[in-house]
């Protein structure tokens, strides 16, 4: 798994009715974009995550004009 600051970390719900938890990666603590990551979630909570198989990284896209 590889991520950069500004990418989104999405933890998918594990049980029926549980929503995905989405956060922004604010710091990459591993080498070369590898975990662990410091993540700020939508509710303002911030924590260190070592993502598991139920997690997805959505890379920030940059556009140039």
UniProtKB/TrEMBL annotation:
SUPFAM superfamilies reported in the protein's UniProt record: Cell growth inhibitor/plasmid maintenance toxic component
Domain (DUF1918): residue spans on this chain: 1-57
Signal peptide: none
Region annotation (Disordered) ranges: 42-65
Entry-linked Pfam families: DUF1918 (PF08940)
Protein name per UniProt: DUF1918 domain-containing protein
């Amino acid at each position: 798994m590889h991520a950069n600051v500004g990418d989104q970390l999405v933890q998918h719900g594990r049980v029926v009715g549980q929503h995905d938890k989405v956060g922004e990666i604010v710091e990459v603590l591993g080498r070369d974009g590898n975990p662990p990551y410091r993540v700020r979630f939508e509710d303002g909570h911030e924590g260190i995550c070592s993502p598991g198989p139920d997690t997805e990284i959505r890379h920030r896209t940059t556009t140039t004009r």
